[in-house]
Design a protein that fits this description.
The protein is of the alpha/beta class. It is built from ten helices and twelve strands.
């Protein structure tokens, strides 16, 4: 069953991007036929209430159509609390731009939300009206608890927005090649083993695609080698991706990952495009 986003929340601040973020959220809500919730963490003064009313008026909506929740306190804790209390399926937030640089990155608050959220999170790296066109989607097909959900979401979204391509990327496990090289095999034998390993990885992705009940957009399966997070990010850049989809990393990383940066840190620290972290490990409607 393809995961659905029945409730979508937007972490909203009164910034120049506020109207754009509400528009993005409303489009996503229409796309998934979902309820839209605006979450603002800050003092609820008369001035801010007026700002919110003006924002909704500009959008052409009202609190009858959009649920507005006001919170005070630590932004991360309060946003995550709202997501839990409201049983939010997808939280949408904006990334920050590095000063004097073109690249976008996930700031401290957003990074903590990405790590601790119990729902899926969509990070918009450059909020514009066209932010959710999603003409080129790249999805990470690495083994994880959310791999099938991530691919299912990519295919479902690809059909909804009539995307040009969904690129499904999976890492070639190099230990098989390393063992072949250590056995002093010929170059031809080495290439044969590599081709077989690539074929095996492609078949694993195809098996997942066969289990997805919805229709399929145009799909390209790409096998990469090297640091998966780094190579995934570079591949998304080469394909001019509008959206990169990954499964949520494990809440508790291994001792090795605590010493060395997790592969997804390459993505979190330097967004190649909009980023969707699919987290469906807990049922929020059952």
């Amino acid at each position: 069953m393809t995961p659905s986003f029945q409730k979508i929340a937007i972490a909203i601040a009164f910034s120049p991007n506020a109207k754009t973020m509400v528009t993005i959220g409303s489009r996503l809500a229409a796309l998934f036929n979902a309820q839209l919730i605006l979450v603002h963490v800050g003092t609820k003064t008369n001035a801010e209430i007026q700002q919110m009313d003006l924002l909704l008026q500009e959008y052409g909506a009202s609190t009858d159509k959009i649920k507005v929740i006001w919170e005070e306190g630590d932004p991360v804790k309060k946003i995550l609390k709202v997501c839990r209390d409201e049983k939010v399926d997808l939280l949408v937030a904006g990334a920050l731009k590095k000063e004097k640089l073109v690249k976008y990155y996930i700031g401290t608050i957003a990074r903590k939300i990405m790590r601790k959220a119990e729902c899926s999170v969509l990070m918009i790296n450059n909020p514009t009206i066209e932010s959710i066109d999603f003409k080129n989607i790249v999805v990470n097909a690495e083994d994880s608890a959310c791999i099938e959900d991530a691919i299912a979401v990519a295919c479902d979204l690809g059909i909804k927005v009539k995307t040009s391509w969904v690129h499904i990327v999976r890492e070639l496990k190099l230990y098989g090649l390393t063992m072949t090289a250590s056995d002093h095999n010929s170059e031809e034998e080495y290439d044969d083993v590599r081709q077989k390993l690539v074929k095996d990885e492609i078949e694993k992705v195809e098996e997942i695609l066969h289990r997805i009940p919805t229709g399929k957009p145009k799909v390209n399966i790409k096998i990469i080698s090297g640091k998966s997070g780094f190579e995934l990010s570079r591949f998304a850049e080469r394909k001019h991706a509008d959206l990169l989809i990954v499964g949520a990393p494990p809440r508790r990383l291994s001792f090795f990952d605590r010493i060395f940066p997790h592969d997804l840190e390459y993505i979190f620290s330097d967004l190649p495009c909009n980023l969707l972290v699919v987290n469906t490990k807990k049922s929020k409607h059952g």
